[in-house]
Amino acid sequence: MNIIENIIDKSNIKEKIKDLKNEIYHIENYNEELDYYNDTIDILLNYYNDNNINNKASLFNNYMKIVNNRTIKNEKKKIINICEKCGFEKNIKLVDKSLMCINCGIVDEIFIDSEKPNFKDNNIEWKVCLYKRGDHLSEILN
Predict the structure, then answer these.
(1) Are strands 90-93 and 107-109 parallel, antiparallel or unpaired?
(2) pLDDT tens sequence across 9-50
(3) At 72, is the secondary structure helix, strand, or coil?
(4) Is pTM beyond 0.70 here?
């Protein structure tokens, strides 16, 4: 080895030693743990002391934002139809293809256009493939 390569190697080794000493210092002094607790202690205490589910979801979202640098989408259920008689929400019954009020039970028929087949319908044509041992033998012989 020539002198320049030797100097570069020593410089790289000294840099690695410096990085490892810095890492050891952080591990011995619990810097990462202390930073974690410092950033999240308020959220964690509120989360475990609060019984409100909506508030817990918000706290969890804040926690994920701090810890993982990401958020969880907050998808709320949309009310599609409201009963004219009582004002409650109507639920979709896919099997019956209807909307049913959860309070008074009034049912409205709906049309659902779907690419998925309904297995209650008998008009589906199933292709039947039977295994015949003799067919495989004739394929091998040909």
Answers:
(1) unpaired
(2) 999 999 999 999 998 887 888 878 888 888 888 988 888 888
(3) coil
(4) no
